[in-house]
Amino acid sequence: MAASSGALIEIKVINAAEIAARLLKPPTARVDALTKKVANDIRRNIRAATPHRSGKLKASIRAEMVAPAWYAITENQPYGKLVRQGSSGGYSIVPTVKGALWWPERGGISGYGADHPVYNIQSHPGIKNKMEYDRVGVERSSAVIDQWMADIGQAYAGMLEYGYGYDSEVVNIQPGL
Hints:
2 domains
């Protein structure tokens, strides 16, 4: 390892403790509003990309606040994962509600393979085509997400400038060895 011949420069950040304390405070109402807006936009785009049969899966997608400026996009249908990721098949479906495995014929031919109504499905063939509607919805929101990141940066920069001035000064210089 070679010896360093550089200089030691010590820099002091003025009001460093106040700046750190301000950054650790909970987000402002502005940051929360920006985050809520982007979460709802992502939710809308995921819903738009969601396949539609009954509308229950699409309607179950929500943007829920976890904490200030922290939102989660949730889905409240257990079969959503199967639609997104596909399935290998071989499982049974037993309805718990009357009419659960019934839907009208489309053009005289069932759009989904079996004659309807059916009372149960002994061996479901699986879902071959993955429908990654969540990924598609997020990709469609990329411009809004980029703008949100810029807006959040400006909001936090404004928090720093509003309450505390920040500056730095060189306090010690030692020439190289």
